[in-house]
Write a structure and sequence with these properties.
Helix content: 25-40%
Bound molecules: flavin-adenine dinucleotide
CATH topology of the largest domain: FAD/NAD(P)-binding domain
CATH superfamily of the largest domain: FAD/NAD(P)-binding domain
Number of domains: 2
Distance between the termini: 33 Å
CATH class of the largest domain: Alpha Beta
Strand content: 15-25%
Shape: globular
Strand order of the largest sheet: 5-2-1-9-20
Radius of gyration: 21 Å
Largest sheet: 5 strands, parallel
Low-confidence stretches: none
């Protein structure tokens, strides 16, 4: 009987894992994707959405045609229960049995980390499509009645790249609207120093980011915890509250409830501790990739910072998981090993009409090489990356780099 691989989630991790497993076994496997959203979302472009530079339809595409074309079954539903002992998932009241499960359910915002962030006028985040649309509505209101702007990443956040990108795009937009000289812009972060990025920093990074901020006239407030958002004020640890008319804050991420609900599967944040094969530490026939997989970091900071689980490592993890599932189906031991920390860091940070390319031999230290390359070519690279990635994912060409 053909083995059944069930994938939860249809974005960077889920789409890649589902199509790769199908490919690894030359089609001789039943693969099904269950995803809460029926569209793929290119999250890196959410930084442009509030400014009207992208519309939702520019950065999403429907999953069903891509999956169907590759003979992968697609169910548009939220998984509500995983029974790891019975190897069964429930979604929209229907039960789906599996031989191997891949959890690629990503993140949800832990908005409770910053009281008031979820429901205070003028304060937004941009980490989901709905949030970014909402932040765009706020931005248009702000333009009618401008005032101080805060962009930041809270304690426990890991997606610092997005915070920096939004900060520099904000600076660019303020200039475009003739507001740059009239509106103070402040970057507030849990990072111990500028350019830490949740990966411990890279050589020259702090200096480069400091230079960028000075050039743009942006004030930096580092190593603070955000205590509360109330209308027009952000309370932070050890300082006077900061004023804002418009604030965009990246919160920490947490895992989905369906993952938390499985005994012994997830950590306290709802992420799945994994081996370097991406098998769950608790259940060898359950894999977790991307944001859903837990990562432990080799440092502690005065204010907690998370790790950026970006698109590139997510795809690598999905490929490793797919190869290992294929090995298990062939009756072999999972043979591909690649811990998160060993995956190269490849990231392009956009700054409106400029940017920084971030390259390192490993996501986490100890590293042999790490470099930040600033310049307008990085803005071009991000535009190319967006177009290329959406084309690649829409066609299901997951074997391309
Ligand atoms: C604003 C922003 C900017 C970013 N910029 C970059 C960048 O420039 N470069 C980069 O490499 N990375 C970037 N990232 C990170 C990148 O988006 C993530 O690495 C990537 O989204 C992780 O993919 P994933 O598949 O693990 O999770 P997600 O993208 O979160 O996908 C989760 C999937 O699971 C589904 N799902 C959730 N719950 C359930 C459920 N209960 N049942 C079934 N399905 C479920 C969702 O519908 C979705 O399909 C950025 C992220 C953000 C938020």
């Amino acid at each position: 009987m053909r083995k059944r691989v069930l994938v939860l989630g249809g974005n960077f991790g889920g789409l890649t894992a589902a199509l790769s497993v199908k490919h690894e076994l030359q089609g001789d496997v039943d693969v099904r994707v269950i995803a809460a959203s029926d569209r793929f979302l290119f999250n890196p472009s959410l930084i442009w959405l509030p400014f009207g530079k992208r519309r939702p339809q520019d950065i999403t595409f429907p999953l069903a045609p891509t999956l169907t074309e590759h003979d992968v079954d697609f169910v548009h539903a939220s998984a509500t229960r995983i029974d790891a002992a019975a190897k069964r998932v429930t979604a929209a009241g229907v039960e789906y049995d599996y031989d191997y499960l891949v959890i690629a359910t990503g993140y949800r915002n832990a908005m409770g980390a910053v009281p008031g962030l979820a429901d205070t006028d003028g304060a937004y985040t941009i980490t989901t499509l709905e949030d970014a649309i909402h932040a765009g509505e706020g931005w248009r209101r702000f333009l009618q009645n401008p005032g101080p702007v805060i962009v930041g990443a809270s304690q426990g956040a890991g997606c610092f790249g997005a915070a920096y990108e939004f900060l520099f795009n904000m600076s660019y937009q303020l200039r475009r609207f003739g507001l740059k000289k009239h509106v103070p812009l402040t970057y507030v972060t849990a990072e111990p120093f500028l350019g830490h990025f949740g990966i411990g920093g890279l050589p020259g990074g702090e200096r480069l980011l400091g230079m960028f901020l000075r050039k743009e006239g942006i004030t930096a407030v580092t190593e603070v915890a955000m205590e509360e958002v109330v209308e027009g004020k952000l309370a932070v640890s050890g300082r006077e509250p900061l004023d804002f008319a418009y604030a965009v804050i990246i919160p920490p991420f947490e895992g989905q409830d369906v993952v938390r609900g499985v005994p012994g599967l997830a950590d306290e944040k709802g992420f799945v501790p994994v081996r370097d094969t991406y098998q769950s530490a608790a259940y060898p026939d359950v894999y977790a990739v991307g944001v859903a997989a837990a990562v432990s970091v080799p440092w502690t900071t005065a204010v907690p910072v998370g790790v950026p689980k970006t698109g590139f490592p997510t795809e690598v993890q999905a490929h490793v998981a797919a190869e290992n599932i294929a090995s298990q189906i062939r009756g072999k031991e999972p043979g591909r090993h690649k811990a998160f920390g060993e995956i190269p860091a490849v990231c392009v940070m956009d700054a409106g009409n400029n940017g920084v390319m971030i390259l390192a031999d490993r996501m986490l230290p100890p590293r042999k090489a790490g470099v930040l390359i600033p310049g307008p070519q990085s803005h071009g690279a991000k535009l190319l990356f967006e177009k290329y990635f959406l084309w690649k994912a829409r066609h299901g060409y997951v074997r391309l780099p």
